[in-house]
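Handoff note, outgoing to incoming analyst
You'll be picking up this chain. Sequence as last confirmed:
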Amino acid sequence: MHYLIHPSFKSISILTGAGLVVSVCTVNRAFIIGYIVSLIFLFLLTTNFRISIKKYLLILAGLALTLSGLITLVKPDSALGRILIYKISFNVFKENLTGIGLGKFPVRYNLYQAEYFRAGHYTTKELLLADNVYYAFNDYWQFIIETGVAGILLLLFACYCIVLLIYRALKHNEANNWVKLACAQLIAISVAALFTHVFEKSIFQLAVLLILIYIFLLTNKVKWNIFKYAGVFLLIVLGFMVLKNASYLKSYKSYIKFEEAKELSKAGFVHESLSALESIYTELQNDAGFLIYYSDELTPDLSYKQALKVIKHTLTKRSSNILYKKLGDAYFKAGDLYRAERSYQLAVFMVPNRFRTKYTLFKYYLLTKRFDNARSIGKLILNMPVKIPSPEIQQIKYNVTEELLLNKN
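Most recent structure output, in case you need it:
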C-alpha cells in the first residue's frame, strides 16, 4: 500500500516506459513520440532541467531523427497521406482566416480536396493516397482551421495556463511522484495530438480532464489522501459519462428502434426498416452515424424525394464521395440532370482513385447520350493507376471497354 500511496520515481518511470512499449507494440507512431517526450521530461526532472545547451541540442536532434525514422520507415504511405491532408487543409485555413466553424472540418475538407484534384496539379502518389477525410490528424491544427486566428490566440493562452499550472504543481509538490506521473501522461497525450486525432476520443478527453483537475487541486494546496482523490475522480468520471451520453439517454427509445431497424434490414425486410428509420429521423437528425446509415439504406428507386432530403441533411454533418454519388442518383431519378452531373463529378474529384464513382459518371453520360463525355471518362478509367487490384475493378474496365467499342462512332 505504501508504494501505491507514495510511488518511487523509478516506478513512475517504468509506468511511463510501459506506455512507450505498448505504443511500439501497436505501431502507434503518435504515442511513440509522445511517450519518448514524456520520458525525456522525467529525465530532465532528475537534473532539475539543468543540463548544458549541447545536451539539449542532442535531445532535439535525437527526437528529430526518431520522428523522421517513424515517417520514412513505419507506414510511409500513411505519412505521405497526412502530408497531403496538411497541404489541402492549409488552403482551407488560408481562405477562411476567421474559421469554418467548430465541428465543420468533416464537412468542408473533402470539398476542398475535390477542388484540389479538379485543378489537376497533383502527383500520381497523391491520387492513390486520397480518401474521404474527417480529421486533420493534428488536433490543434484542426481546431485552428475551425476557429481561425482567434483559435491560435486561444490555444496559446491555454498552453500558457497549463504550463504555468504544471510549473507551480512541480514546484510546490517536488516530492510527490504522482504529480510527475500525471504531468508525464499529459505530455504524452498532448504531443500525440500533434500527429493524430486524439481529443475526439472520450478516454483521452477524460484523462486530460482528470489530470488537470488533480494538478489544479495540488497547486491550490488541497492535501487529500488517495481515497478522497479516488472518490472525487469517480464522481467526475460518472458526470463526464452522463454528459457525453446525454443525447443517447434523451433519445434512448429512438436508438433502440434504430438498432431494430438495422436488424430488419439484415433480415431482408427493407421497407419495414426504412419505415422505422423514417419514424425516428426527426429525433436523430443531428446524429451523423444515424444519418449516414439512413442515407446508405435509402435508394432513389424506393423514394428519391426522401433520399434527397436525408442525403442533403447528412451532407451538412459530413461529406464523402459516396454521399455525393448517392445524391447524384437521387437527382437523376428526380430528372434534375444538371445537379445529377455536378454531384457525380464532385464524387469523382473528391476521391479520384475510386473506379466505382468514375464508372457511375461514365454510365450517366451513356444514358444521356453524351458519347464524347463518356469516351473521355472511359479512357480515364482504362488508364487509371490501380490502388488495390480487385475483381470489381477488372469488371469495370471490361464493361467500359465493351461500351466504348459499341459506341465508338
